[in-house]
Structures are given as structure tokens and as C-alpha cells.
């Protein structure tokens, strides 16, 4: 049996997108020439005829204009890779907000995070292969970031680019993009599938569902639906590749270290790094006779720390709450307000950096000052995440109380009836056993009792565990009936009162 919930499809979409990327990548690899040797373009695209460019760009233009369906394959490859990144990110968010990273699936979380990093690496190396002006400008930014590393930055740049920038970066990136990273991605997908078979699937709580069973669709039904989802992903990728132009390299021309394209920006999945660079103040310090540019080093360090915290978060929460048991039932986000608040705060942090990458475009479109927008994003970066944490926690508490009210008293009908004693009360329609369980019959994981010496670390752990638990309402005792047991006939007035109300007296 396999759980049946729409949020569980993100992992399948990521894998099916990877299949599309692999197939189209093999087709492109046959026609592409990974060489920086210069040639003079004499192809069918008239504006670039007579322009000196690398064989890499020349072959990419030939794929786009001379190979049958070559442009379609290029664009499907690009769109499918973006779809894969988005699906992996959504899968990570689903695991986070539902608690799908808890024991025994901590390793699953690390594998999915590794998939995200490997996919970002594959996308970054792939965008450099056409050797056009857009990719060249992105590589120039990458070179500046690498060189900002104190003491060893210039050596790292020489190692990455094969000498002084721009060097022969294609000779470095091509094997990574075509051989190394695909093998890593295949290995990670296989590891994730093996872990899923070993640990079993997680499911949302409900009547008859426990940590020891799975209630869902049969394997054959899951396989058929999976095949349908694969066809859907392929169809969407083909539709986007056929109708939406992406990465039109012929408009940018060949890469030139002395030039940069105006109005360019990073790919959306790396925009948060560019936004961090824009928001960092222009600080520099001199240490041991060397100038250290904090304006570049600080945002890179902050973004790296953010990604590290995302990777190790399951272990941090497990240490705080003391939860050492296996949890095969997923949470609704509202049932863990602190975790949900932390997740929303992380989204706001990422979103502010992501939006800051387009500050210059926003300024042009809305006739605003770039400096004013940068200052606004700097304030939002500091104030936004804590505010999002507090607001999200309060919203989750309010949703819990509303669900508990509905589970106990039923749904308001708007029908007011008169009682025999002359009073009035609103009638409520009871909910069935499944919805009572879903609303207020969730399984609550109690935090471990931390006893012993009150060291500073233990006191901090107790404080954080209290924050995790204080806004989680207790499940309703009446929300745990068997799904075969009928619910209460009413939680509002008596049958006598209903008859009086129905008569209008």
C-alpha cells in the first residue's frame, strides 16, 4: 500500500523531470563541441555572421538553427531542469512542514538536500557551456566571489577556471555537467528509493492509521498513476519547450571578459545569492597586509550558513525535543506552530534575498530609487523573518482552536432555534469520524523530560523545547472513534429544541 496525497507527488515530478533532462541531454551531447577554439560564424543566423566565437557557441547555435528539432530539445532540456529544481524544493518544504524528516527518515532528508545541491551544480555548470555573453557575465561574478575568499581565493579561481579568468572553464565544467553530476544524481535517486522501500512511506494521521501500518492505494494503482504523472511531466516540458523561448543565446553573442550584458540576472534558483551580494554593505578590512572584502565574503558566508542549517535542521529539532522514537505519521503544519513558524521565517529570508536580486529591474519598472529599494530589502531581511515566525505561530494556534471547536461542536449552520425555556441557540451540523480525527485527533509527540544537572546547555535545551511545545493544543479526547463508529447526532440543541425551531414557534 502507498499513501495517497497530492503533496507526495513532488518527489515523483523531480525524478520524471530528471529522466527528461537525461534523455534530452544525451541528444544535445552528440551535437555539442566542448571547445574554446575560435571560429568565424557562417551559419544561418545573419546578425552573427562574420563574428568570431568559440566552437562551443558555434555548435550550440548549430543545434538551435540547423539540427532538426534541435531548438526544441535545447528548450525542453532547460525547462525540465528548472522544473526539477522547483519540484525538489517543494519536496523539501513538504518534508519540513509535515515533519517527514523525523526518525527514521533523517537520512532521507539529507539525500533530498544532496539532490538539491547536485541539481544546482548541474544547472550552474550547464548554463556556462554555451559560452555566450550571458554565461560569461555569470562566470565573471562567480570569479569575483571565489577570489573574495581570504588568502586562497586566487588559487581557487585558477583551479576552477584552469588559469587566469576566463581560462578554459568549459574543459572543467563539461565533464562535471555530462558525467560526474549525472552519476551523482542517479546514485542519490537510487539511494532515496532504497531508503523509501526500507523505511516505508509516511502518511498523514487518520482513523485506522498508526505508526505501524499504511492506509492508501495498492501498489498497482500507484504504478499506473505514476505512469500517468510521467506522461504529464513529459507533456508539460514539451509544451513549455515548444511555446516559451528560454536562454536565446543568439541575442547575447559570444562571451567576452571585457564586456557584460546589460539587464542580465542569475537564474531564479541562484537569485538569492545575487540578492545577498546586493544587500551586503561595502565593508573592507586589511589583515596581514591583505584586503578582505566583506561585501562579498559576508553574504557568501551567510548563504552557506543558511544552507547548512537547512541540512542539519532534523538533528537540531530532534536534540531540542528529545524525540528518539520512529514517527511514521506526518503532522499538519498547524499542529506544530514553532516548526511552521521557523519554516515560514526561512522562506521570508530566502524570498527577500531572491527579490533583492531584481532591485534594479524593479526600480526601472516602477520608477523608484535603487538605493531606496536596497535599504528597504535590508530592513526586511532583518525584521521580516522574526515577524513571520511570530505571526505564523499565532495563525497556527488560531487554526488549531477553530478545528477543535468544529470537532467538538460541529459546523455552524446559521440556523437559530428556540429552546423550551425561551432561549435561543444556533444549531450545529456534526462532522463525521474522519473529519473529527483530521481536525483534532492528531497524534501528539510529547517532548522528552530533561532531568539532571541544569547546565547552561541543558537550560537552553529546556527553554527551546518549551517554545516548541507551548502552542500545541492537546488533541480532543472525543476525536478518536473508530471510522465505523457513528459520530454524535448533534452537538447543538436537543431534538425537542430542533422540532420547536423547525416549526418556527
Layout of helices and strands:
Blueprint (H helix, E strand, L loop, with lengths): L9 H22 L6 E3 L11 E3 H11 L4 H29 L7 H23 L4 H15 L5 H9 L7 H31 L3 E2 L14 H25 L27 H9 L4 E4 L2 E4 H28 L7 E2 L6 H20 L2 H8 L3 H40 L1 E8 L5 E6 L3 H8 L15 H14 L25 H9 L2
Parallel strand pairs: 3-6
Antiparallel strand pairs: 1-2, 4-5, 7-8
Write a concise synopsis of the structure shown:
The chain is mainly alpha-helical and 505 residues long. It has helices spanning 10-31, 55-65, 70-98, 106-128, 133-147, 153-161, 169-199, 219-243, 271-279, 294-321, 337-356, 359-366, 370-409, 433-440, 456-469, 495-503, and strands at residues 38-40, 52-54, 203-204, 284-287, 290-293, 329-330, 411-418, 424-429.
Characterise this structure.
- The chain is mainly α and 505 residues long.
- The chain has helices at residues 10-31, 55-65, 70-98, 106-128, 133-147, 153-161, 169-199, 219-243, 271-279, 294-321, 337-356, 359-366, 370-409, 433-440, 456-469, 495-503; strands at residues 38-40, 52-54, 203-204, 284-287, 290-293, 329-330, 411-418, 424-429.
- The protein has a two-stranded antiparallel ribbon with strand order 1-2. The protein has a two-stranded parallel sheet with strand order 3-6. Strands 4-5 form a two-stranded antiparallel sheet.
- β7 (411-418) and β8 form a beta hairpin.
- α1 (10-31) runs antiparallel to α3 and α9 crosses α10 (294-321).
- Residues 480-505 have low confidence and may be disordered.
Amino acid at each position: 500500500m502507498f499513501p495517497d496525497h497530492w503533496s507526495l507527488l513532488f518527489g515523483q515530478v523531480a525524478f520524471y523531470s530528471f529522466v527528461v533532462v537525461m534523455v534530452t541531454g544525451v541528444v544535445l551531447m552528440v551535437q555539442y563541441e566542448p571547445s574554446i577554439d575560435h571560429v568565424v560564424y557562417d551559419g544561418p543566423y545573419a546578425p552573427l555572421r562574420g563574428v568570431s566565437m568559440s566552437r562551443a557557441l558555434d555548435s550550440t547555435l548549430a543545434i538551435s538553427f540547423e539540427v532538426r528539432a534541435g531548438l526544441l530539445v535545447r528548450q525542453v532540456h532547460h525547462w525540465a531542469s528548472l522544473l526539477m529544481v522547483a519540484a525538489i524544493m517543494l519536496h523539501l518544504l513538504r518534508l519540513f512542514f509535515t515533519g517527514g524528516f523525523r526518525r527514521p527518515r533523517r537520512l532521507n532528508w539529507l539525500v533530498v538536500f544532496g539532490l538539491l545541491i547536485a541539481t544546482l551544480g548541474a544547472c550552474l555548470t550547464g548554463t556556462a557551456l554555451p559560452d555566450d555573453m550571458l554565461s560569461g557575465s555569470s562566470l565573471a561574478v562567480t570569479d569575483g566571489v571565489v577570489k573574495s575568499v581570504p588568502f586562497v581565493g586566487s588559487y581557487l579561481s585558477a583551479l576552477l577556471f584552469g588559469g587566469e579568468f576566463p581560462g578554459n572553464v568549459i574543459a572543467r565544467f563539461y565533464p562535471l555537467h555530462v558525467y560526474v553530476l549525472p552519476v551523482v544524481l542517479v546514485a542519490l535517486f537510487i539511494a532515496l528509493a532504497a531508503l523509501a522501500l526500507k523505511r516505508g512511506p509516511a502518511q498523514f494521521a487518520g482513523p485506522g492509521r498508526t505508526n505501524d501500518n499504511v492506509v492508501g492505494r495498492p501498489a498497482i494503482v500507484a504504478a499506473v498513476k505514476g505512469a500517468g504523472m510521467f506522461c504529464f511531466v513529459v507533456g508539460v516540458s514539451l509544451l513549455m519547450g515548444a511555446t516559451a523561448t528560454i536562454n536565446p543565446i543568439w541575442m547575447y553573442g559570444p562571451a567576452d571578459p571585457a564586456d557584460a550584458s546589460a539587464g542580465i540576472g542569475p537564474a531564479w534558483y541562484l537569485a538569492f545569492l545575487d540578492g545577498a551580494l546586493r544587500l551586503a554593505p561595502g565593508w573592507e578590512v586589511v589583515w596581514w597586509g591583505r584586503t578582505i572584502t566583506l561585501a562579498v565574503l559576508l553574504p557568501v558566508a551567510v548563504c552557506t550558513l543558511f544552507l547548512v542549517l537547512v541540512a542539519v535542521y532534523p538533528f537540531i529539532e530532534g536534540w531540542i525535543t528529545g524525540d528518539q522514537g520512529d514517527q511514521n505519521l506526518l503532522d499538519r503544519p498547524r499542529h506544530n506552530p514553532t516548526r511552521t513558524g521557523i519554516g515560514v521565517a526561512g522562506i521570508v529570508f530566502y524570498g527577500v534575498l531572491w527579490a533583492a536580486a531584481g532591485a534594479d529591474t524593479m526600480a526601472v519598472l516602477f520608477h523608484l530609487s535603487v538605493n531606496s529599494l536596497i535599504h528597504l530589502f535590508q530592513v526586511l531581511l532583518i525584521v521580516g523573518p522574526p515577524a513571520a515566525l511570530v505571526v505564523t505561530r499565532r495563525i497556527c494556534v488560531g487554526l488549531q482552536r477553530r478545528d477543535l471547536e468544529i470537532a467538538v461542536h460541529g459546523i455552524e449552520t446559521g440556523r437559530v432555534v428556540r429552546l423550551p425555556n425561551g432561549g435561543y441557540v444556533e444549531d450545529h451540523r456534526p462532522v463525521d469520524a474522519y473529519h473529527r480525527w483530521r481536525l483534532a485527533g492528531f497524534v501528539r509527540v510529547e517532548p522528552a523530560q530533561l532531568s539532571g544537572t541544569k547546565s547552561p546547555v541543558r537550560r537552553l535545551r529546556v527553554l527551546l523545547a518549551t517554545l516548541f511545545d507551548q502552542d500545541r493544543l492537546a488533541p480532543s479526547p472525543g476525536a478518536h472513534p473508530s471510522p465505523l463508529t457513528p459520530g454524535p447526532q448533534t452537538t447543538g440543541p436537543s431534538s425537542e429544541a430542533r422540532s420547536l425551531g423547525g416549526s418556527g414557534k
